[in-house]
Structures are given as C-alpha cells and as structure tokens.
Amino acid sequence: MCALFDPPEPRRVSPGEYPAWDQALALLNRDLAATLPQLEPLQLLALPSYDAEEPENVYVAMANGEWHGNCLDPNSQASLASALASVADAAQETVMELSWQAWPLCPEHGLGMHPMQDAQERLFWRCAGERLRRGPAHFHAAVGALDASGTSIRTQS
C-alpha cells in the first residue's frame, strides 16, 4: 500500500514496448560497450505520469536503475532518427552525471562529444576540436559506431 504522496515505482520497460527507442538504445549501448566497457548496458525505465491523461514517462537509466535528466519526448518515437537523437541525449546525460565523466570522448582531442545531425539527418558524435590550436570541429563517428580505434570522419562544422 502506498501513502498518498509516495512517488510511483519505476518499472523496467519490456522489449518491444517502444520499438524505436529500443533500436536507438541498442545503438547507444554499442557505443557504451566500446568506450566504457566497465559499465553494464543502459535500459529504459518508465514511471506513470502524475496526470492520468498523459503517457508514462520513459527514461534512459543505468543497469542499476538510476537515471538523470529529463524523460524521453514521446513524439520522438515517430522515426528512428528522432528516437536516436532523443535517446542519445538522455543516455549521455545519465552516463555523464552518474559516472562523473565526459562521455563519449574524442580520442583525437580528449574532449566530450555531443550528438548532432548532419545534412542528411544522420546522427553523429561531434567533437568541437581543439579551439586553442584552432583545430576544426568534426564528426567523429555515427552514433552506434564508436570504437576504440580513434578513427575520425573529418568534416568541418
């Protein structure tokens, strides 16, 4: 029995409930495994909305159930591109805040990268470059395609 003001308990989202977010999270978990292999895969957690008319709130959480940041935008399920952008932002927020480190890092510059769409609306990890040396900003790798090799896709941005 819950008291009147007890917060609802989060539940782990079952595979297939949110297919676009599942696909996006699988790509993010590949990047996580390649760059922070000591961390277990991320998961989706859901909390009921306080308004019965609203959909539940879904978060990207660590394997232990902790998360940080805002819930995923329900409208981002319309396409894989928008789902990937939403999940990438949420995953990055959770990983960085709960592990106290920038993620993912550009192997060339040692700077944290951020998800950004290119002209064809594909999502890449973008590095700001070394501003002190006037190094160019560049896309490092597609979201879901990070590896430890340090290869870089040079594109001025």
Based on Cα principal axes, name the global outline.
globular
> Into which percent range does the helicity of residues fall?
10-25%
- Kindly provide the radius of gyration, computed on alpha-carbon positions and rounded to a whole number of angstroms: 17 Å
Question: Which CATH C-level class of the domain at 11-99 is it?
Answer: Alpha Beta
Total beta-strand segments: 6
CA distance, first residue to last residue: 55 Å
Which residue ranges are poorly predicted, with pLDDT under 50 across at least 5 consecutive positions?
none
Any overview of this molecule?
There is one protein chain. By secondary structure, the chain is an alpha+beta fold. Helix content is 24%, strand content 17%. The chain has a domain of 89 residues: Double Stranded RNA Binding Domain (2-Layer Sandwich). The strands form two sheets. A three-stranded antiparallel beta sheet has the order 1-2-3. Strands 4-5-6 form a three-stranded antiparallel beta sheet, covered by helices on one side. Strand 4 and strand 5 form a beta hairpin. Helix 1 crosses helix 2. The radius of gyration is 17 Å and the shape is globular.
